[in-house]
Write a structure and sequence with these properties.
Blueprint (H helix, E strand, L loop, with lengths): L30 E2 L5 E2 L2 E5 L7 H9 L2 H6 L1 E6 L1 H10 L6 E3 L12 E5 L15 H19 L5 E3 L5 H6 L7 H8 L8 E3 L4 E3 L6
Parallel strand pairs: 3-4, 3-7, 4-6, 5-6
Antiparallel strand pairs: 1-2, 8-9
Amino acid sequence: MNQADIRPPVPPYPALRDPVERGGMPRSGKRHSRAGLVRKPVIAITIGDLNGVGPEVVLKSVATPGVRRLCQPLLIGPLEIFEWCAKELKLRLRFQPFESLESTNPAKAIPIYDLGIFHPRDVRFGTLSPIAGTAAGLALHKGAELCLQRKALALVTAPISKSALNLAGYSYLGQTELLAELTESENVTMMLVSNNLRIGLVTVHV
């Protein structure tokens, strides 16, 4: 993908073609397959910034057995870049394009909602790029959409570059503000959560 091909997105951002034709995620997060078995909750995970730690953090997380025991990860990002990064990191992971919840078999491969217009040659580690910003923005948009359609129970966002996001034409201070608009939420709070603490920030990105 050439930088000349990048065009700043204009709200409302164009939704990527969704291959999911039916179904949804119940409020409990549990979904029954046709065989009657309870599936794990689907957690959408964005790729983050292509030129940063995003892809590495995502792949090392889903390679952890504990994560796979708790949920069914659904990665959102370019399939080719995920495959290339897994190979570079020497992670033995298999992937499959995400088509529907019913057709997904997490025992065989990790499902990926493919943002197919990006390629490994677009990756320039440690640099600011509107290409990386566009990929991060589109992944956030699709992740929010899947959650609102109840096809994913929650959204986990990998680290992004706010500067790259702005270079791509997204006029937001960060992911929180973008997700607030996508979900049409008037009041939002960034919260840090641990086993013993719940911290809501009074100010962000000052």
